[in-house]
Please model this.
Amino acid sequence: MNNIELLMPAGDFEKMQYAFAFGADAVYMGIPMFSLRARENGFKRDSVVQAIEYAHSLGKKIYVTANILPHNHKVNPFMNYIGQLLEQAQPDAWIMSDPGIIMMTKERYPDQEIHLSVQANTVNYATAKFWEKTGVSRIILSRELTIREIRQIREYCPNLELEAFVHGAICIAYSGRCLISNYMSYRDPNQGTCSHSCRWQFKMYQKENNQPAHWLQEAQSAGIETAITQQGESYVPVKGDYYLEETDRPGEYMQLDEDENGTYLMNARDLCAIEYLEELKDAGVNSFKVEGRNKSLYYASLVARAYRNAIDDMHNGRPFNPQNLTDVFAAANKGYIAGFLNGNPGKSAQKFDGTRAEQQCYQFSGIVREYDEERKMMKVEPRNPIRKGMELELFDKTTTQTIKVEKILNPKFREIEEIHGGLHYCWIPYPKKPAEFSLLREQTAEFNPYEVELTKQQSGGCGDGCGCN
Ligand code: SF4
Model:
């Protein structure tokens, strides 16, 4: 593999089209029942075949995600599905994580390429070598690796393809090795039904009478005013601060922050490694992967464009262009970190105060569906309110231009003042036919990409991924 691959998620057929249109070299898609994100999977049996044909018609690659950990009763249906699909279409690779399914697939279909899913949690060169010996051609590296560790894996495995996540949501656990979702909603991440419970809001209740004993002494000697419980005991009124103490580690208090909205104590920020592509390439990564099969086509388009530009600049010896950050921040995010690339990200990895987007500077306004040459108007499917007189940005893979909405016509070509997202469609004047797959967005906040320090979080450790802080 000579060139670095930009690998985008394809949650459904349309998202796949936009991912390709905005610069993806390859996409990964789920199959019904046997891929993670099973509930949000936008592909049915027929559209899987169509998607493979579509990707190949563009000369691009498409990988089929089949990475659940099936129980006994699913093994045969799983293998039957693979056989039936291969009679109709040839994906470029299968993304799998279950060793038994990988073995059976290799036995029955030795020519099929298999990429080892991130779900298999490869964190060292020995594991990578093990999988290479089984015939796996690519390892999707665990997200919990530093750049130094990736480089070591490359040194030990010069012939394996290495794929690394560079953007998107992060699990609070090693990918999929998680029982939170099972516990909270009886939905198993390893069966493709994760409910993302780690991102939910939690509420904790403080009991005044179980504070660590030394708090009261310290507060009193510092002259801090104390309060009295209903039982007449003194306590320190530390409003808003809550702590956990593990029984085998007395005296080590883990702080949980809560405000009037509650707490999001397991809510991981999002990964953004766009500034580290050169280092990842030098460490031996062949494929840069973006997470987010259940995110919008707006997200798929913007993130594809940002990373496409960054990869092309890297190939052409140009330095990183901060302008690419505008697209990265134009999509919803939970605040960005560089994951574990520089070592354990420590506290900067979590966003305790909610799931609201951070510094999101644009919102999705609509999709340009077609163009009426006679009327010189574009047909727009709105995704958020569009009002007469407002300024929008019309963008495609290579251009972004500001336009003023001079007029809005409803489907009967009657003039209206505004249209809301979700309503059918409207017509907006524009002098020439926009590029295919053009989208509209509205700037909602000032944003200066040259002032952003998005992923320069403090490294919380030695950089060897040992978890030290
Ligand atoms: S609940 Fe959160 S940590 Fe667990 S698998 Fe789902 S996304 Fe990952």
Q: What stands out?
A: The longest helix spans residues 297-315. The pocket of iron/sulfur cluster is lined by residues 171-173, 176, 178, 180-181, 189, 194, 196-198 (CB under 6 Å).
